[in-house]
């Protein structure tokens, strides 16, 4: 590589060889612009998601019916993360990119065969899940066994919502294909439809059922169906219709399956840990499952707006650099991506920890959502917040390994993280609050009694996930040389020190805002913009290059929106 070649930045287009086909050449703006587009639309989605959760909290509160719904929804949602978004869609991007590098027709064939494979796989899982809904409920919520009505309600909701797995898998597959083709807006906007569907279901359908919570189950199904149609239309307009082709003997399917099996764990480790913690929370006092859910929903806002948006944008970019063998540029791109990730996540973590109580109070403490639920949800939120940067690092680093078609290394790291999460959970959660009426529940209760060191309840479960994510992110950073990626460690360290310094100054100012004793809404309205200004000012004084990159993306987004 010539020494005169300019340094790549996230907002500059990733170069491709002149021989690359049109589908790989013509791409809008690069990683940072893609991150900005996905992040902006994710803001809209998260706003509707928080509005959805506020509606659910006001109408249903936190207790019997919401515990049943959240457990039931997490089972098909976990399959979505594992099979669709966490594995199939993530591994499809490098496979699809390789096929596009051959020809557009090869890409169309790959899309068709993988679509058929996806439908068959998720249909089998759906039939299995509907047939064994009660048994799955017992397995994943053993604490419900002593409350037969709660267990039956969760099983009925699970049976109703399991077909969502097929719909959302097609949505994830079509979205990953669009991302590989350089189209990010459509897939990023799809969750808005699901959130609107759930909100509408509460107002339009709740009164139609003897148990009003069933309206949310129908809202999930309707929203899933309405979300996938626009993606299929967008793909067809780009010249890649999702026609069904035989998956038997198709090389892209074989490659996908080989990559999928280990990546099921690595790409979805956070969701697996959340699910394990939900299982354990069913052993704690009533409301614990709901408190964890509501806290996780607030936590998902910053996580999705930037961190997961960045992870979505970098996978196609990393895959193109690997496909065109530009490993030097890949190393520099990964370094800057991680610097930028820390620049956003470190101050966001400080803000979430300090403002956990005002955030929960402002969003949820209305209707039947009590002050005690606010306190309990806030305790889980600060524990989740500790893991914001580690979870974000894990998501981006796994994409680097996936782009290099190395799925075994992150899978091994993920297995270690899951074991660490379980160990920390038992140490932190305290004794069970329900009588163990099943073999699994009895085994968990016995283990809890023998190894518990702290009694943090559901907050201990959230903290366990954060600590496990820290372990997995650290391991992946150390293992990057295995796939030929060399970080500029000096630049990475200096960037993080600048960011920590600016975030520390911001935190002092935010703590001062808390001491004013304002209402939760006033605290947020004053503290959030003030914290952003202070952090940006200090980052400017420290000479953080990530600040200019952030402003550059914002300017381009506004300019593009105004065109």
Portion in helices: over 70%
The ordered string of helix (H) and strand (E) elements is HHHHHHHHHHHHHHHHHHHHHH
Low-confidence stretches: 1-29
Tell me the number of helical segments per DSSP (H or I, 4 or more residues long): 22
The largest sheet is: none
Separation of the first and last Cα atoms: 37 Å
Structural class assignment: mainly alpha
SS strand fraction: under 5%
What is the count of distinct domains?
2
Shape: globular
Number of extended strands = 0
Radius of gyration: 23 Å
Describe the structure.
The protein has helices spanning 22-25, 31-60, 64-102, 104-131, 133-140, 148-161, 164-180, 185-205, 214-237, 251-266, 269-281, 288-323, 327-354, 356-364, 371-385, 388-403, 408-429, 439-451, 458-479, 489-515, 520-541, 545-562. By secondary structure, it is mainly alpha-helical. Mean pLDDT is 80; it is low at 1-29. It contains 22 helices and no strands. The chain folds into two domains: 27-487, no CATH class; 489-563, no CATH class. The protein is 79% helix and 0% strand. α3 runs parallel beside α7 (164-180).
Please outline the helices and strands.
Elements: H1 22-25, H2 31-60, H3 64-102, H4 104-131, H5 133-140, H6 148-161, H7 164-180, H8 185-205, H9 214-237, H10 251-266, H11 269-281, H12 288-323, H13 327-354, H14 356-364, H15 371-385, H16 388-403, H17 408-429, H18 439-451, H19 458-479, H20 489-515, H21 520-541, H22 545-562
Helix pairs in contact: 2-8, 2-12, 2-22, 3-4, 3-6, 3-7, 3-10, 3-11, 3-12, 4-7, 4-10, 5-6, 6-9, 7-8, 7-9, 8-9, 10-17, 11-17, 11-19, 12-13, 12-15, 12-16, 13-15, 13-16, 13-20, 13-22, 14-15, 14-21, 15-19, 16-19, 17-19, 20-21
């Amino acid at each position: 590589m010539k020494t005169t070649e300019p340094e790549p930045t996230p907002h500059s287009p990733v170069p491709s060889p002149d021989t690359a086909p049109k589908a790989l050449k013509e791409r809008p703006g690069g990683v940072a612009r893609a991150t900005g587009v996905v992040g902006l639309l994710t803001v809209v989605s998260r706003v509707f998601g928080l509005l959805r959760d506020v509606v659910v909290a006001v109408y249903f509160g936190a207790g019997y019916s919401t515990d049943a719904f959240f457990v039931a929804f997490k089972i098909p949602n976990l399959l979505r993360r594992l099979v669709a978004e966490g594995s199939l869609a993530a591994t499809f991007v490098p496979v699809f990119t390789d096929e596009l590098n051959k020809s557009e027709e090869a890409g169309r064939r790959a899309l068709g065969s993988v679509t058929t494979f996806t439908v068959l796989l998720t249909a089998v899982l759906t039939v299995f899940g509907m047939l064994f809904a009660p048994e799955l409920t017992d397995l994943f919520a053993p604490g419900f066994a002593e409350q037969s009505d709660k267990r039956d309600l969760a099983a009925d909701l699970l049976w109703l919502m399991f077909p969502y797995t097929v719909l959302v898998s097609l949505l994830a597959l079509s979205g990953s294909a669009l991302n590989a083709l350089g189209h990010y807006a459509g897939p990023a906007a799809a969750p808005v439809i699901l959130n609107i569907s759930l909100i509408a279901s509460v107002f339009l359908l709740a009164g139609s059922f003897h148990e009003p919570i069933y309206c949310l189950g129908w809202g999930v199904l309707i929203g899933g169906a309405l979300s996938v149609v626009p993606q299929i239309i967008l793909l067809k307009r780009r010249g890649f219709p999702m026609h069904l082709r035989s998956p038997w003997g198709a090389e892209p399917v074989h490659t996908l399956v080989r990559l999928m099996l280990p990546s099921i764990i690595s790409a979805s480790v956070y969701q697996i840990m959340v699910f394990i913690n939900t299982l354990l929370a069913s052993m704690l006092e009533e409301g614990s499952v709901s408190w964890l859910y509501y806290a996780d929903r607030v936590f998902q806002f910053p996580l999705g707006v930037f961190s997961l948006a960045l992870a979505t944008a970098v996978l196609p970019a990393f895959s193109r650099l690997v496909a065109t063998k530009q490993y030097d540029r890949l190393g520099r791109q990964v370094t800057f991506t991680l610097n930028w990730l820390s620049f956003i996540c470190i101050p966001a973590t400080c803000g979430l920890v300090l403002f956990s109580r005002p955030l929960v109070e402002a969003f949820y403490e209305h209707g039947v959502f009590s002050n005690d639920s606010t306190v309990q949800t806030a305790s889980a939120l600060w524990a989740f917040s500790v893991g914001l940067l580690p979870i974000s690092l894990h998501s981006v680093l796994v994409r680097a390994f996936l782009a290099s078609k190395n799925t075994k290394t992150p899978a091994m790291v993920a297995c270690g993280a899951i074991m660490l999460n379980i160990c920390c959970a038992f140490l932190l959660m305290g004794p069970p609050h329900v009588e163990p009426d099943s073999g699994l529940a009895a085994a968990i209760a016995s283990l809890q009694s023998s190894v518990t060191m702290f009694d943090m309840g559901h907050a201990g479960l959230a903290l366990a996930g954060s600590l496990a994510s820290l372990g997995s992110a650290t391991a992946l950073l150390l293992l990057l040389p295995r796939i030929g990626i060399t970080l500029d460690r000096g630049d990475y360290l200096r960037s993080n020190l600048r960011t920590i310094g600016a975030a520390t100054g911001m935190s002092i100012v935010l703590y001062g805002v808390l001491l004013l004793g304002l209402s939760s809404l006033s605290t947020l309205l004053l503290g959030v913009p003030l914290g952003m200004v202070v952090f940006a000012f200090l980052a400017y004084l420290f000479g953080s290059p990530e600040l200019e990159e952030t402003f550059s993306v914002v300017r381009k987004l506004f300019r593009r929106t105004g065109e």
